[in-house]
Design goal:
About 55% of the residues lie in helices and about 5% in strands. With about 300 residues, the protein is mainly α. The protein folds into 2 domains: about 1-95, Orthogonal Bundle (DNA polymerase, domain 1); about 115-240, Intergrase catalytic core (hpI Integrase, Chain A). Strand 1 and strand 2 (about 165-170) form a beta hairpin. Helix 1 runs antiparallel to helix 2 (about 20-40) and helix 10 packs across helix 12.
Length: about 300
Amino acid sequence: MEEFIDSFLNYLSVERGLSRNTIISYSQDLQSYVGYLKGRSIKSFSTTTKNDIVGFMMFRKDQKLAANSIARSLAAIRMFYRFLMRERITKTDPSSLVDSPKLWKKIPETLSINEVESLLSGPNVRDEKQGIRDRAILETLYATGMRVSEAVNLRLDNVNMEIGFLRCIGKGDKERIIPLGKKAIISIKRYLDLSRPILLKKKESDALFISRCGKKISRQSLWKMIKHYAKLVRIKKPMRPHILRHSFATHLLERGADLRSVQEMLGHSNISTTQLYTHINKERLKSIHRMYHPRP
């Protein structure tokens, strides 16, 4: 059963062009599914039924997995069965009979504009080695709404500071062009002039953001850096990897940006994902109404 999963993951990478993170998640979901089937003495995908998939989803629920994680597992299983049918390994797709768990869409946590300003002021820009780089990274994330994984993969030739745009390679290797604000451009230029040459330590790299070891900065290091500055400036909200991305979208919409433009900048394939940010503004208005209206 594992060899079919390996073939499927190779198909996702080579033919579908899915991101490495998505493939890793699907691999973990399918390995868990196989483990569940083997525990029930099922040794072939061709003998599985709708009840086996539903049973697996209930098993994952009993493990206290969130609804969106269970839905992702089901998405992986559905795509896998379609692959098995395409390869004529199975004749039926039992996953097509399974309903997705209803997802309770959580409103993303965001920072206020003042909190963003505090976070951006966290790095000590007198420290040419690291502070200037960290400020450039934070400014870039907030100016563009990029994912952390996208920011660490930026190359030098992805940034055009003359015309003020950045070329981003997102999920599924989809390319999008995002405007850069003046403050982000200033921070990046300063980083390139003063900090990046020191961090490179006479090495060569086409990565934009460099670690202290002279290599491309890792996603984990970048995320630790964000949490460090949030703690330093005493932001009390729980920090998540996409919090600057969520703040970027929310602040644009609050100031009247149209939904389609925000969708394009975020790289959402479905506008319903972007619409989630409009709920944040509605919740904010409701909270103001409750606070100040004489009859809330």
